[in-house]
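wait is this the right file?? whatever heres the structure
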């Protein structure tokens, strides 16, 4: 067996560390870009059974779960959890807003508008509800409804972040 000098051993060790890190980094990058999918998520052998009912009764835990699902763009699942929040408290305007936005992002503008209109009816001073209603109206090509909702949102606090966003969307809505 050949005898290696200290410098050769050091170079060999550095090479192995670099090689191991490179393999790790490339593997990690691959799996981040191509997440594993369950057969149901991939459309292979998807079950037709209804999802299990949500039995949680703590609204804070439900909100945390739904917001996490929403942030992951799992809008169908988030909508189910927001519906559960509304089962527990039908007058929760924030849950109506969040459910409306989840429905909008999954392509159900009609359902989204229904919940957003319920939110502004239950709490007409809630700026976020008017802003969200205006946004969804714009997406649904209801320019008149969008302008009315966005004007209301801006009027409730033009210096807030929601008021500034309403002003920005109003400008965009008024463009030909």
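ok assuming it is, sequence goes like this
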């Amino acid at each position: 067996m050949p005898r290696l000098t200290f410098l050769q051993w050091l170079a060999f060790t550095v090479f192995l560390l670099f090689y191991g890190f490179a393999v790790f980094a490339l593997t990690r990058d691959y799996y981040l870009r191509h997440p594993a999918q369950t057969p149901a998520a991939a459309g292979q052998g998807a079950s037709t059974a209804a999802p299990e009912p949500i039995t949680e009764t703590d609204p804070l835990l439900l909100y945390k779960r739904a917001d996490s699902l929403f942030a992951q763009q799992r809008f169908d699942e988030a909508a189910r959890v927001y519906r559960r929040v509304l089962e527990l408290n039908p007058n929760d305007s924030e849950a109506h807003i969040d459910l409306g936005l989840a429905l909008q992002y999954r392509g159900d503008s009609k359902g989204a508008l229904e919940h957003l209109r319920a939110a502004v009816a239950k709490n007409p001073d809630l700026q976020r509800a008017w802003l969200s209603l205006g946004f969804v109206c714009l997406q649904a090509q209801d320019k008149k409804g969008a302008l009315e909702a966005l004007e209301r949102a801006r009027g409730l606090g033009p210096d807030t972040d929601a008021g500034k966003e309403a002003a920005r969307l109003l400008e965009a809505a008024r463009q030909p």
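The helical segments are 6-33, 59-71, 75-88, 93-105, 109-122, 127-139, 143-155, 161-174. so i think its the right one actually
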